[in-house]
Specification:
9 helices; mainly alpha; single chain; about 220 residues
């Protein structure tokens, strides 16, 4: 069971996490993906990194170099071809990145040794927030039942990722956990290439290489 002191942080995490995801999906759907995705990715990584440095101090030079390289990798891997006109989406990207970054800070305050109880509260708060958005905005929520297995799989993987992030923060530094977890677009690009036969852009290749370099630098500095 989660500690009473963890509950407020869990609720804050659930609400800002919900805001971040809704804002990100809305931005990707209505604005320029080439603007929304990189800004969101960088802010989601940079905010917890800065907070972690202020709270825990500056890590070793190798780790600092790895963090810098990782943020560049996030920008490159998050870039997408985007020929659409219309709003750039900078505002919604700032909201999405700021909220997701704040989510990382909130769950870093969960007491050591507590993971799945707090995570349940976080998801309940997030679900409540999304439900309120649906009701107030009178948005459609129905989906094709054929999507249910895929949606359930995404939910399980997302929960596993959040649980791993909590454990990483509890056993190491927030800045390191935040920047390494922000490299998830690398996995997305690789999976899209293998299973969807999507073409890898040159910027993605460079980003993947830089992500590997960043991981090596951070691991070497943490040894």
């Amino acid at each position: 069971m989660p500690l009473a002191s963890d509950v407020p942080w869990c609720i804050v995490g659930g609400v800002v996490g919900g805001i971040g995801i809704v804002a990100l999906y809305h931005g990707l759907a209505t604005a320029r993906m080439g603007v929304v995705a990189p800004i969101t990715g960088v802010l989601a990584a940079a905010i917890p990194v800065v907070y972690g440095v202020l709270l825990e101090g500056l890590p070793s030079p190798l780790i600092v170099a790895g963090i810098a390289v990782a943020i560049v990798a996030v920008v490159l891997v998050s870039r997408v071809a985007d020929d659409r006109s219309g709003p750039s989406g900078i505002g919604i990207a700032l909201l999405a990145g700021g909220a997701i970054g704040t989510f990382g800070i909130a769950i870093s305050h969960i007491s050591e040794g507590h993971t799945f109880g707090p995570l349940t509260i976080i998801r309940a708060a997030e679900a409540a927030f999304v439900l309120i958005v649906i009701l107030v905005g009178r948005r459609s929520w129905r989906f094709d039942p054929r999507w249910l297995p895929a949606m359930a799989g995404v939910g399980v993987l997302d929960m596993a990722g959040n649980a791993a992030f909590i454990l990483a923060v509890q056993t190491g530094a927030l800045a390191i956990a935040a920047v390494l977890s922000s490299l998830y677009p690398v996995t997305t690009v690789i999976l899209a290439t293998v299973f969807l036969r999507e073409r890898v852009a040159p910027s993605h290749v460079v980003g993947i290489v830089l992500a590997v370099v960043a991981i090596v630098l951070i691991a070497s500095g943490s040894a």
